[in-house]
Amino acid sequence: KKIRSARKTLAKQGKFTAPFAPYGYKKDPDNKHHLLIDENTAPIVKRMFQLTTEGKTPTEIADIFTAEKILIPRAYVAKTYGIYLTGYDTRYPYDWMGNSVASILRSKLYIGTLVNHKRTSKSFKNKKIIQIPEDEWIEVENTHEAIIDRETWDIVQKMVAVKKRPNKNGVSQIFAGLVRCPDCGRALSYNIGTYKDFEGSFVCNYAMNKGKKYCTWHYITYKALYQTVLADIQSHTALLKKDRAKFEEALQSHMSSQNKKQLTLLKKEQSKLQMRLEELGTITKKLYEDNALSRLSDDEYGRLSAQFFGERKEAEERLSVIAEELKKEERNLENVARFTKIIGKYLDIKELNKTVLNELIDKIEVHEAEKIDGKRVQKVDIYYRFVGNLN
């Protein structure tokens, strides 16, 4: 019990407690609870993430590393430290597995965050290991130098969460995991075309499985979706190329819940309330002194104290609301800068691929088509990362 308590304390302090450093890191020789980047394996971890952003699956990455004869983590430990970990078969030092790659890709360790207290034994007598619920895990950020930046890690999480299912021709479509139905919220299923020049289409998965009673088809061809998304991205890159300042200003205006005039008023109100709190502090102190010196009766002191306490509480609550509003605007500015940086990489974009889509887009909602003036019209909402739907 004492040992478990000590481990939990170390976990809360962000101390590394495992006997061996995870792949990509090594133990600090001056502090066994601290991790340093391993110059030999960190580049392999970086490459793993890069290949994922390029559309490779964990299994495909494992096949690449196996072909290139890159030592698996257990083989690297054996070669470097002369320690043979349980489960390591010395006959297969280069045989990478997709689940090993996926485990590394999902780990927050590589963005500098230690996650501990994930499992424990039942008791001192019963050594059976049990899993601890995720909401009870102990996470401590910035405990060691990150190998992967948070932005890349977030993109990769979205990509590894989607199972890449090749169609019958062996091709995986680039919109996997992104296209959704705005009515029922479910994914749109991709159906490969049966004709030579037809690349396939998307329909609502719920409608397809349950029927039109539950949802409508939301049918759209792969080609139409591709052209719509590409055109939308190109429209934004054209504005960015023409005038970056105006582009960022338009984005900020789109995202802001408050206009500039309102923000100015909020800041003035914040300053006024802060000054009033200082005054109330002085007044409260004076009331206490007057009461102590019998210049103010106990009844009058109690009445005035309650009055000023109420005013102080209201001021503090209002300041909290204002601070949250101002923080929101600061986050909006940061998100505008992030999105501008990412989309700025694709100023001359001519075609789409999996990397582009996952870097730029959170989700795509395809609405049911309508007939307007005899023409088929279909709304497609594109939700970009950091800034949402811009149309």
Molecular structure report:
With 391 residues, the chain is α+β, with helices and mostly antiparallel strands. The protein folds into 3 domains: 2-160, Putative Large Serine Recombinase, Chain B, Domain 2 (Hect, E3 ligase catalytic domain fold); 179-254 and 347-389, no CATH class; 257-337. The chain is 48% helix and 14% strand. The strands form 6 sheets. The protein has a 4-stranded mixed sheet with strand order 7-11-14-15. A 3-stranded antiparallel sheet has the order 8-9-10. It is extended and about 95 Å long.
Structural class: alpha+beta
Sketch the topology as an H/E string, one letter per element: HEEHHHHEEEEHEEEHEHHHHHEEEEE
Strand order of the largest sheet: 7-11-14-15
Largest sheet: 4 strands, mixed
CA radius of gyration is: 29 Å
User: How many DSSP helices?
Assistant: 12
Q: Which architecture of the largest domain per CATH?
A: Alpha-Beta Complex
Number of strands: 15
Q: Give start-end ranges of low-pLDDT stretches.
A: none
Beta-strand share of residues: 5-15%
Q: What is the CATH first-level class name of the largest domain?
A: Alpha Beta
Q: Based on CA inertia axes, which overall geometry fits?
A: extended
What's the name of the CATH homologous superfamily of the largest domain?
Putative Large Serine Recombinase, Chain B, Domain 2
Distance between the termini: 58 Å
The overall number of domains is 3
Blueprint (SSEs and pairs):
Layout: H1 2-12, E1 25-28, E2 31-37, H2 42-53, H3 58-67, H4 73-81, H5 98-106, E3 114-116, E4 119-121, E5 129-131, E6 138-140, H6 150-160, E7 179-180, E8 188-191, E9 201-204, H7 205-210, E10 220-221, H8 222-242, H9 244-255, H10 260-292, H11 298-343, H12 354-360, E11 361-366, E12 370-372, E13 375-377, E14 380-384, E15 388-389
Parallel strand pairs: 7-11
Antiparallel strand pairs: 1-2, 3-6, 4-5, 8-9, 9-10, 11-14, 12-13, 14-15
Helix pairs in contact: 2-6, 3-5, 8-9, 9-11, 10-11
